[in-house]
Design goal:
Elements lengths: L13 E6 L5 H11 L4 E5 L6 H14 L3 E5 L4 H6 L6 E5 L1 H10 L4 H14 L4 E6 L10 H20 L2 E6 L2 E6 L8
Length: 186
C-alpha cells in the first residue's frame, strides 16, 4: 500500500484528477484510491473497438494490479455507481471516454451530464474521477472535434465545481487546484 492509510472522512466525496494524455493522471488517481485503505471498485468506460485499444486496456489492468473489482460501464455510470457499497471507494476512468461514448450514441449531453453528477452525489462511497484536459491543444480542424473539446471543457468544469479535491497532473507531477491532496499520495 502506498503512503499512510487515510481516515474515511479525509477523502472528499468527489475527487477529480485531470491532465493530458500520458500525464500520470490515472496512476495518481489509483494511488489516491489505494491510500484510502477501502475496498476498491474500478469503473471502466473504455470500449475495445480495435487491437490497439484492447492492448491499452490490458496494459492499464496490468499496471493497476490486483485488489480491484472492475465494472465496465461505457455509457451508464449511474447504475454502476449505485451498486458501489458504502465502505468502498470507486475510481471512474475516465470521464473523457464516457463523454466520447455519449457523443457517439448521440445522447443529450446536458441530460447525461446532469444524470452523472446526480449519480456521483448519490453514490454511497467516495468517487475519484479521471478526466482529460483537452483544451490546451490547438483548435481542432473539424466541427465534431471542436464540439467534443467544448463538451469536455464543460464536463470538467461541472465535475470540478462539485469536487472537494481537484488535482491536475502534468509530467507525472500533481498540482492541487482545489482542496488538499492527502499526505503520502503524491
Amino acid at each position: 500500500m502506498t503512503g499512510s492509510i487515510l481516515k474515511a472522512e479525509s477523502l472528499p466525496h468527489l475527487c477529480m484528477v485531470l491532465g493530458g494524455a500520458r500525464s500520470g493522471k490515472s496512476r495518481l488517481a489509483e494511488r489516491l484510491v489505494i491510500s484510502s485503505g477501502r475496498p476498491r471498485v474500478y469503473i471502466a468506460t473504455a470500449q475495445a473497438w480495435d487491437d490497439e485499444m484492447q492492448a491499452r486496456i490490458a496494459a492499464h489492468r496490468s499496471d493497476r494490479g490486483g485488489g480491484w473489482h472492475t465494472v465496465e460501464a461505457p455509457l451508464y455510470l449511474g447504475p454502476a455507481l449505485a451498486e458501489v457499497p458504502a465502505g468502498a471507494v470507486v475510481l471512474v476512468d475516465c470521464a473523457t471516454l464516457w463523454l466520447s461514448n455519449q457523443m457517439l450514441a448521440e445522447a443529450d449531453l446536458e441530460a447525461e451530464t446532469d444524470a452523472l453528477l446526480a449519480a456521483i452525489a448519490g453514490c454511497a462511497a467516495p468517487v475519484v474521477v479521471v478526466s482529460n484536459e483537452v483544451g490546451w491543444s490547438i483548435v481542432p480542424e473539424n466541427a465534431l472535434a471542436r464540439r467534443f473539446r467544448d463538451a469536455q471543457g464543460r464536463l470538467n468544469q461541472r465535475l470540478a465545481g462539485q469536487a472537494g479535491l481537484v488535482v491536475a497532473v502534468m509530467a507525472g507531477l500533481p498540482m492541487v487546484l482545489k482542496g488538499t491532496l492527502p499526505k503520502g499520495v503524491a
